Backbone:
């Protein structure tokens, strides 16, 4: 694999977006918003890797969902989403199911997303990987 391009046009992890998720009045997880750090949108099927650690604890892929256009997708579904287009101006939401959610205060979010650029071939079978990840501290103020 080639070295991934990394050009940050915007903050990937959006400020003031970390919130707990409630299901039937019970704190059952958390969510935060992300944006593409690119100069053009992409189909969700182009996402090669998506990983998340919060406060040093790795989040299991089956506990994480990618939300866009009012829809929720499991991480394992992304490679099949050839018709779901993510515009550069719209945020997506990462939702994580975790009993009890997160405590009030600061949390270190380490988000990794690598996607391929279909217009930048680097061989007959590979395309330039683009690193659109970020590490950032966000606060829940409940």
Residues:
């Amino acid at each position: 694999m080639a070295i991934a391009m990394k050009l940050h046009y915007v903050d990937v992890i959006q400020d003031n977006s970390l919130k707990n998720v409630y299901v039937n009045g019970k704190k059952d997880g958390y969510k935060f918003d992300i944006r593409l750090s690119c100069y053009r949108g992409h189909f969700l099927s182009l996402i090669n890797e998506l990983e998340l650690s919060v406060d040093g604890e790795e989040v299991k892929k089956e506990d994480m969902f990618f939300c866009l256009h009012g829809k929720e997708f499991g991480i394992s579904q992304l490679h099949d989403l050839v018709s779901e287009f993510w515009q550069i101006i719209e945020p997506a939401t990462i939702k994580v199911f975790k009993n009890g959610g997160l405590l009030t205060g600061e949390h270190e979010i380490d988000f990794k997303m690598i996607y391929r650029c279909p217009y930048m071939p680097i061989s007959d079978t590979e395309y330039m990987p683009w690193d659109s990840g970020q590490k950032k501290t966000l606060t829940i103020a409940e």
In short: The first strand starts at residue 19 and ends at 23. Residues 89 and 110 are 22 Å apart (CA to CA). The mean pLDDT is 91.
